[in-house]
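Task card 7
Instruction: Convert sequence to structure tokens.
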Amino acid sequence: MSRSLSQPVEACSPLGESVPEISSTLQNPLWLTPRSLPLTIEECKEKSKVFYDVEMQADWLAFDDYCRTQGLKYPLLVKRLACMVMSGAVSADILDILQPTSLTPEMIIEMEEGFNLLKNAFTKANCMDESIEFLTKQWYTGVLARIRINAFRIELAGGLYEDLLSSAAASVEAEAAVGNAVYMLPSFYNHDCDPNAHIMWIENADARLKALRDIEEGEELRICYIDTSMSYDARQRILSQGFGFQCNCFRCLSGD
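Output:
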């Protein structure tokens, strides 16, 4: 049974299943590194209470300076996750189910400075040893390896649901991103350069999925990890370097 393009869809798994004609939130983010998302939102405040106190115990000047000067954003997500683990909000192995990117020995060596600054911040804050027992170099690099190919860049879209595609496009064009976040369920969607669905974010950074065309029952839901307007060579290069695979979707096989 086909579903109308104009209907929002809910996805329950990365495998092909029937798609109900209802509007539904896919999932809340595990954590967010906000750039312009207002912290006055009551829901955001409530969600952050569990780790905010832990995060405020440490002096992050050196760590944040390192990320800023090196142009790094994902270590900030690791910092947030570490605070959530210490507060008991999540388990240290919560991301283990996600696929990691391959890290070269050189890349792991480059990550050492960030790891040392992160651990030193907690140590200087007199955090109890047992509370940061999980924080090893192996954990730090493993989390970064998963975040690198699973984190989403969030552009908030407002307005009516029917206008979300145009709103989202305008947000991307204006580079109106509020940060990056990891969403467990959306991380399992496979890539296609001609996707049948698109993930977008509504005001509170909840992720929603919208069908881009009619979707047959049993058809796998696929999203595009990159800009679909790129040329074949550009898409292949970015997917290979950034995500570690060569795309063999129908569009790429046709040379488009």
